[in-house]
Amino acid sequence: MKKWFVWLLVILILTLSCIYLLIPSKIVLSGITAAQCTLSGEFRFLSNTEKWEKWWLDSDGKRHVKGEPFIYNGSSFRLTGHSMNVVGIEIENNGIILQSVLHLVSFKPDSTVAVWQCEFPKSMNPLKRIMYFENASEIRKNITGVLKNFASFISHPKNVYGISIFLMTVRDSTMLSARFTSAAYPTTTDLYGYFDVLKKSIQKQKGTVTSYPMTNVIKLENDSFETQVAIPTGQRLQNDGKITFKRMVPGNFLTAEVRGGSYTVNEAMRQLELFISDYNRFKIANRFQSLVTNRLEEPDTLKWITNIYIPVVK
């Protein structure tokens, strides 16, 4: 009987010794991934739960259901805060709740590294150490999976900005242009009324229209709007009253094609401005829109096509 007790005591001591020697009192987990995205662009998508909806996938590839917890392979993740390229995320797995921190570091303008770290609380309880150790492997795997999904999504600029953005060079072009102010945002009828005035001036001077009508609307400090309209021409024409001849010198433009109404176009413009800020580009002139679809002939705004341009330094 004493021998069994001694052996049991020895086994218990050896087991506890192995637990305390092999399982550290503080278990630290980390995951790291690199993505082809700017630091500011990546931070916007990590620091906003609404944007998590766009990139979150479970381990089986299923998209997140709005209003439900963010789950990956049984672990749930919740945004707790953010500040200066650092995001706090709470992780829950099998009843264990951990506070983690995700740091973003950029070594190149279009490349960002995400470092995700968390640690289990210290414990002298051998059973808790075993439980923490068993969960650590699962949580580490889930962190890696979440980072992989995020990096795959964020590395595509169209996912970040919602539009395909291109850099193009515009050749030397000529146009007739006019400006007008209005108390409210100009209507489609307003714009095409001025386009007609420009076309009549081009016809009067025996000129030719070479491309789609262009416009740019700016909100002034007094809440009124200044609108510039223009129509490209095939030759140099003369000023005609308030209508002036303009020449667009060759240059580099960031451009995107947009399908939708004014709200969609304005949002695309905002995203293009974010792109310029994210990549430290410099604007050298006002942005403008080229109205591919005749808005008067096509009442369905979903079918409208607009090309937007912003002149930049390459």
Give the key terms.
33% helix, 14 strands, Multidrug-efflux Transporter 1 Regulator Bmrr, Chain A, 314 residues, Alpha-D-Glucose-1,6-Bisphosphate, Chain A, domain 4, 7 helices, 2 domains, 6-stranded antiparallel sheet, elongated, 8-stranded antiparallel sheet, alpha+beta
Sequence-ordered SSE layout with sheet pairings:
Blueprint: H1 2-22, E1 28-35, H2 39-46, H3 49-55, E2 70-72, E3 75-83, E4 86-93, E5 96-108, E6 111-119, H4 126-154, H5 157-161, E7 166-170, E8 173-182, H6 188-204, E9 214-219, E10 225-233, E11 244-248, E12 251-259, H7 262-278, E13 288-291, E14 305-312
Antiparallel strand pairs: 1-6, 2-3, 3-4, 4-5, 5-6, 7-12, 8-10, 8-11, 9-10, 9-13, 12-14, 13-14
Please tell me about this protein's structure.
The chain is an alpha+beta fold and about 325 residues long. It has two domains: about 25-160, Alpha-D-Glucose-1,6-Bisphosphate, Chain A, domain 4 (2-Layer Sandwich); about 165-310, Multidrug-efflux Transporter 1 Regulator Bmrr, Chain A, CATH 3.20.80. About 35% of the residues lie in helices and about 35% in strands. It has helices spanning about 1-20, 40-45, 50-55, 125-155, 155-160, 190-205, 260-280, and strands at about 30-35, 70, 75-85, 85-95, 95-110, 110-120, 165-170, 175-180, 215-220, 225-235, 245-250, 250-260, 290, 305-310. The strands form two sheets. An eight-stranded antiparallel sheet has the order 7-12-14-13-9-10-8-11. A six-stranded antiparallel sheet has the order 1-6-5-4-3-2. The chain starts with a helix and ends with a strand. The relative contact order is 0.12.
